[in-house]
């Protein structure tokens, strides 16, 4: 089962890995109980780039978000639906801080004439009404997820707010649309532009047929660098909104259970630790933590200075820092519940991802 899913992800990566704004596929292989996927390495995750930006206004954020939609448009052009287009699955690469879409563990090819692929997979707060209601995800689902991502970054909370991380409550809110999104930034004194609010309302249309495609969204005037004087974006800083977005889980959805429960290492953890010890011995030369943070800040400061984000570079990393030229993801071939990018927690929730995914959310337990 795990081998089949790992091969499926490698198949998808071969299909999209040379597209602009997608992480480039290098190779895949199997060795014993592990399956490896090698991808080009990126500089930092999107969240780190936002943290390191000296200022963050709508103008600067538009450059990043535009590249996120460009990534979705590329993927959709080859009939692939990502199904987990959330902020944590975007990385920044190179001197231009080009944004790249990564982690195709949930991606599927949409057959011609089909409305999408079956299954309730994804990160719950970013999942569309049609996934919960009709058990289907097509390319409009990725557009919805990007809309939720943008909304959360600029407003500081998810569109549908529930009083605790609960599958039933979130599903009910997304399906019913109640309570409705406020479209008001939680940061004091910040007023979002009419262009941005209009884009958000288009992206979060509840009927998937009424949403713009990712390519159509790129034509929205909010992404235009040549706005008319009367339509210029406000210069309010969105730093506090992004900080609030992180606190509610825009980059790693919180779980009461995961905060209160620690698990002892299992056999898969021990096997991975031994491999790491063998191939990355202590004292290995490389940047120390402070050097990495300084480098991240310097590179992230370029994000808002170059909002258009035009770059043909295609690089990728599963790990977030270091000096190697590529990153390796592995998927266990036995019945373990671990992956190399994060601890996987067993859950009976249907909306969790397959075991080959790099990041498995346990937001609903």
UniProtKB/TrEMBL annotation:
Residues 277-365 are annotated as: Disordered. This is Protein kinase domain-containing protein. Gene3D superfamilies: Transferase(Phosphotransferase) domain 1 (1.10.510.10). Residues 290-300 have a biased composition (Basic and acidic residues). It comes from Prorocentrum cordatum. Residues 1-223 form the Protein kinase domain. Pfam families: Pkinase (PF00069). It comes from the Eukaryota. InterPro entries: Kinase-like_dom_sf, Prot_kinase_dom. SUPFAM superfamilies: Protein kinase-like (PK-like).
